[in-house]
Design a protein that fits this description.
Blueprint lengths: L3 E6 L2 E6 L10 H16 L5 E6 L3 E3 L10 H13 L4 E5 L2 E3 L1 H8 L2 E5 L3 E3 L13 H4 L5 H10 L3 E2 H6 L5 E3 L2 H14 L2 H34 L2 H11 L9
Parallel strand pairs: 2-3, 3-5, 4-6, 5-7, 6-8, 7-10
Antiparallel strand pairs: 1-2, 8-9
Helix pairs in contact: 1-2, 2-8
């Protein structure tokens, strides 16, 4: 079963997360297929830029709790998006949760439709947004990060744009995306690669400096009793034991 569908038009490769049955959750298989697809786009001289989008009502629900990826593989995926010598643009016409926000924040530009919603739900599961901090914290307003990391509240596309998570909040996601893609098609491949390198250099250094520690933190949290209770409660659609 293919979880990533690739199409193309006028130099733009579109990679579609196509696992609606689990709300495009980050399974080991999806992460592996997406990394392979990105590598193919990087090597394809006909590709000017990549659009990352989704089927169904959810862009990405975060980690697949029944078949989670190895944390190193997911960190590798986020780093590959950041380091790709071609711009990666997220097209979001649905919901984004937990690790999905890390995937979104790894993209260079993000356009979200008015029906989109966002939440960092890790704290409610006994976890923390550990490895996704590598892409989120350089991008998101720190005051907003304090709030949403801790509370797990949902917020809409307008708020996501206000705090820097998305570039454009649009009533119609494709109309919002159109001028972005036009601009990318008018730019030279060399100009795009060199310009992206300037804006991602600090983020890549952060990966090199902090990724190993954050992977270890994430693994420790996932193995804890509290996280087991949180994830079990989530799968059983009940409140975890600590809710008051």
């Amino acid at each position: 079963m293919t979880l990533i569908v690739r199409t193309g038009e006028r130099g733009i490769a579109t990679l579609t997360l196509d696992s609606p049955a689990n709300r495009n959750a980050l399974s080991a298989a999806l992460v592996g297929e997406l990394r392979d697809a990105l590598s193919d786009c990087a090597a394809d001289d006909t590709v000017r830029a990549v659009v990352l989008t989704h089927t169904g009502s959810t862009f990405c629900a975060g980690a697949d709790l029944t078949a989670p990826p190895d944390p190193e593989a997911f960190v590798g995926l986020m780093r590959e998006i950041v380091a790709l010598p071609k711009p990666v643009v997220a097209r979001v016409a649905g919901h984004v949760r937990a690790g999905g926000l890390g995937l979104l924040a790894a993209c260079d530009i993000a356009v979200a439709g008015e029906r989109s919603s966002f939440a960092l739900s890790e704290s409610r599961l006994g976890l923390a947004p550990a490895v996704i901090s590598l892409t989120l914290l350089p991008r998101v307003d720190r005051t907003a990060a304090n709030r949403y990391y801790l509370t797990g509240e949902r917020f809409d596309a307008a708020e996501a744009a206000r705090i820097g998570l998305v570039t454009v909040a649009a009533e119609d996601v494709d109309k919002g995306l159109a001028p972005v893609l036009d601009g990318l098609r008018r730019a030279s491949p060399q100009g795009l690669a060199a310009s992206k390198e300037l804006v991602t250099a600090t983020v890549l250094r952060s990966f090199d400096q902090y990724a190993e520690d954050l992977i270890a933190r994430s693994a420790a949290l996932f193995a804890s009793d509290e996280a087991r209770e949180g994830m079990t409660a989530f799968l059983e659609r009940r409140d975890p034991a600590w809710v008051r």
